[in-house]
Write a structure and sequence with these properties.
Layout lengths: L1 H10 L3 H14 L7 H11 L1 H10 L5 H24 L3 E5 L4 H16 L4 E6 L4 H13 L6 E5 L1 H10 L5 E4 L14 E3 L6 H12 L4 E6 L1 H17 L3 E6 L6 H8 L5 E4 L8 H13 L4 E3 L11 E5 L1 H18 L13 E6 H7 L12 E4 L1
Parallel strand pairs: 1-2, 1-3, 3-4, 4-5, 6-7, 6-8, 8-9, 9-10, 11-12
Antiparallel strand pairs: 10-11
Helix pairs in contact: 1-2, 2-5, 3-4, 4-5, 6-13, 7-8
Amino acid sequence: MKIKLLLSLFQSKKYIAAHALIKFIARNFNLCRVGIVHRLTLLAETHSNASLRLVKSCRRPNFIAAATVLMLYICTLPCICEAFAGDKNVIILQSQDIAAYKKAVDGFKEGCKINNISVGETYNLKGDIEEGKRVMYKIRKKEDKPDLIFSVGILAASLAREEFSDIPTIFCMVINHERFNLHGDNITGVAAEVSVNDQFTVLRDILGENATIGVIYNPENTGNYVKQAIPVANRLNLTILKKEARFENEVVPAFDEMIGKIDALWIVPDATVLNKNPLHHIFKTAEKKRLPTFCTSNTFIKAGALLAIYPDYENIGLQSSQIAYTWLMSRESSFTTIEKPRKLNLTINTKTAEKIGIDLKPIEGYPNVNYYP
């Protein structure tokens, strides 16, 4: 009778009720002392060995029943997981309406669709803190609070952290996230920068070993970022020559002092460095001196940078959705560390490459290479 009821529940897609009935059947068959749920969880983790131990622990008259319950649980576990995930309320906060943010949101929605996670409202904060506060107030007034918040950009991430510290938040597209208070048990995310190891691997393939890479940075902005890069460069047989610039007017002198001492310039995402006037001087001088310039955003390719190594923004959203799914299913009380982007893109300025005489054949076989113009 109970098996017929179980089949009926599955046919009507009432997976959570079916899951409860499986546990009831298991308890009544006295399959094991420590509880059927614990054994079945073990089975999901260790596959056939756990299955064999569970079957051997069953009383012989219940052998077929035990095997039946096992198969029903295992085969329907994805459906049960989908039912739990789909029952959750996930909202999206987007700092402003720019193309990179939209790609991340699209990737997140696509990933949630694949994992059957229901995505509710998407709020555009329009790059305005007052608009952001109005949106926060609107969310707080709602009876159904979100189970998880996906925040895109620093404005959205900061407001979610301040206003909803009790709700799990996943952020992305925040440059230099370490500068901000985006850490704790209830917040995690995907970094906006490609790992230094991935960047320097590309640089080594182009420049060869024993090359010297220059970098200009403000210690208050990217000091830790540059510090972490040094041992990575050493492992790849590269040398970093660093120059500090705490103010915008110090960037050009720092760069000029490097000329003749470096084989390439690594332009990090530092607000002090990334300004129109110093960048114009850097790109113009670098072309004249036949000096390769590398950056972490394709925005500067048109200005004259040789190569941009940056994350795939849509894939960042997809990666964030996988973090969301893991949290919603495991009910963990805290998140793990911030993840690095898993997929990177390369954009090459072919005009700059021709002018400075750089051979790009070593990276032609890389995936996701784009050419400008």
